[in-house]
Amino acid sequence: MSEVIVPERTAVAPAPTVAWTPLGENAILVRSACDAIPAKVPVAVDGNPRNRAQTMVLSWRRPGAETSLATGFLCLAPAPSVDASGSGALLIGRPGRPLRLILAAKPQPLQAFLSDLADDAGQAFPSVVDGLLEVLLTGAPNPRRLRAVAMLLQTVARPGGFVEVMGALGETTGPGEGIFLQGWTSHFAAGRVKLLISHGGLSPAHLETGTFERDDLGDGARGFFGLLEDCHVQRPGEIERLYFRGNDGWRALEVYERYVLLEPITVPGHLRDGLQRGTAPQATADKLRRASQRFDGRDTVCLLEEPVRAGIDSVTVIEGTGVLIIGWLFDPERRVGGVTLCSGSRSCAVDRLWTRVQRADVTAAFMEDPRFGPALASRRNNHGFIVFAPKLVPEAGQPLYLTFEVQGSGPAFLPLEPNRAPARSALERVLGLLDPRSSTANAVVERQIAPALQAAEIAPPRAAETLDVGPFDPEAPLGLVVGLDHRHRELSALFALLAMDPEARPLPIVLAAPSESFDRVGAEARRLARFYGLSVRLVAVEGVEDACDALEAGVRACRFQTVALLSGAAQIRMPGWLGRLERAYRARGGQCVASPTLLFEDDSIRWAGAWLEGEGANRRIANRFVGYPLDAVGNLGPMEVAAGASECCVLSRAAFIEVGGFARNYFTTAEKGLDLCLKLRMAGSPSLWVPDVEVYAVDDGETATPHAGALAQLADRTSFDRRWALAISNMKG
């Protein structure tokens, strides 16, 4: 057909008024009749030939109508102007003469428009609607067009089968996810199928599908399974119906009323089953196979033909911190390319973080297995691993598992059954499994234990109960806080020495102890306080792991202006100790931490000031006089040092509270005290050593596994250096 020109001005007969309905903001659907019209014409809006567009026309014969109205037609046109300047007219170019149409004053609702169209088109209505659907689905969809498509499909789509099984591949159908469908049909083949999904609205999608034979279906019908992609549906239950274009027109897949809804974890297994019994084009089969290679709750490592096996000794979720895993991976031929810890949408590549350890027991177990023994010719024993996965805490309701990328067979999975435990107790158990003499133990401590403890979000100790004995004054200018840990401490000597000290006797005393031992400790303390006439507040503390925790809770359970801290590991050696410490503290304007000399029980020095040694990056804090006889310090007066001793000291309560008290991310009290003193120093309260005040400090084990004490100290030193090395390298003094 030659191009049809719409003239600038054309004399035409009076134009008929036609029905129309809007489709979105920029288009309308128009129905009319004429003598003849081609399938593609230009249309000018508001009678203005400069505002025109090409449009497709759908037409049908109208038997019995006048010749001038023998052809009914339907077309899309640009929406007219909404202001008064618009004429409400369309000018359609066609061979011979243009066709001028006047739009009705009001648009018809879509449903009424389609009803009138069905009456006018008669038997041609299905084919007209089919063509209209093609037009409406061309180009970018909009909500109004899709609503029109949905109404049309409900009218013309014929039954095309049923969906009987559905399930989300993941917890959501976001990027990379999909919805599994299974059912039957006789109207599409395996491969990639375009669909329109009815789910309250209408949206496009694709179904990557395979087919399989079913004995319970009639001729030509087959079972299908597949995965919906590019889908806007969030949950399978939202799907009401699926439309697709078959060879003989539009068809509808109905969702069976009693459809089976699969749990996400079972969907990969259904995909694998479909691939085993069905067929699909190679591209579709590859895509479905990749989707099927997901965790479904089973241990698939044990099913591998390759010489790869794995086992787990323990998995501990450290609340708010991460996951600590101890296990082994038997992979003598190095087939595993990566190991990832997963839970829901969270993951961590643990093979980049773990520390490999010797596991001769694994070697021995597989040596006698004829399937794997030949692979062990190298006698490698480092099959074990310990790893801390930081910040990966299992998602609520989601399984925790390891994914192994195995060369030649894809991913394999190992489900994990985690326990939950406090950070310190969980990590101390790991220390107990290590040989302190091995270099591997040091690597585990530095790369796994120390980072885990530093990252742990450990709740502070909390005073659960308080009981006052005597006229206790919580607002006193000076008070004594005694902190006890879980070990049994003899209180009678402490109370007797306090009672005999004229400077300590009138002071209010806070005695903080773990709530687990509070009944025993509290009863003894009440008896002794009444006997000696001391003023005591007893505090039962929850969450105590060492004496520093008890001291922390004790300080917060009073409002003294100045506090004297005394750990349960410290023992008073002489009267007047507290008065002399306080006077040294006051001499510095109350802006310091005043500590005495700490002694072992044989009167040798345990602590006589912490000093800065070295320069630059090699600078560190050291205790110079450890093990020396007491006479080594001579008659020195009070002097400033790098850090004080938290086992016994006098300091400002406000300063203690302001810096956050003791850090809880250490195993031992030594680094906790050092950390506190450095925080106070940075806040303007340096440490002061008062040599002529002497206090005993019992040096007993602090960890739950005493033989691991060296490793606990290494972990604390590693953690301390990570936190303070840069600051110490720049300190003066």
UniProtKB/TrEMBL annotation:
One of its GO terms (molecular function) is glycosyltransferase activity. Keywords: Glycosyltransferase, Transferase. It is an enzyme of class 2 (transferase). Its EC number is 2.4.-.-. InterPro entries: Nucleotide-diphossugar_trans (IPR029044). This is Glycosyltransferase family 2 protein.
